[in-house]
Design goal:
The chain is 14% helix and 37% strand. With 177 residues, it is mainly β. Strand 2 and strand 3 form a beta hairpin.
Length: 177
Amino acid sequence: MDLKPIGFSKLVINPQDLIDRQALVLTSGDFASHAFNAMTISWGLIGVLWNKPCMLVAVRPTRYTYTFMEASEDFTVCAFPAAYDRDVAYLGSHSGRYEDKIAQTQLTPIASAQAHAPCFAEAELVLECRKIYWSDLDPTHFLDAGIEANYPRKDYHRLYLGEIVALRAAERFIQKK
């Protein structure tokens, strides 16, 4: 896909649409050594914290990608057009621990501009993020008792905050003058 490098201030998204309704993939690890994993995400936040453009992602410690997130200094988040929904769903329903799940899709990992983690040639939006903070969710801090229903196995997410260090987007995500 033909993506243009842009600054964060030129990014135009509906966060609810992007995170909740679009096919998003989190990838961490090292592209050069082919030691990476990708997973579908549908929870996250995008915005500004500490005067930096940031992406917050949530990864359960039971996920194979968690190992890569712990060992890596960066990650990528890629958004895909609807034509790749089936491929993205495959990444979310199979584990890279047991198979080369990316090889089972039509997705093509490629080198990122700044991150060690790859992005994907078919993506229409690529956020390359440098990890700057993490925190484990503490259920004693849940103010809404209903949140606990998301954790029947008590596998509370680790939150990773990444500074967006490179951003490439298709025209539909770029602010027009």
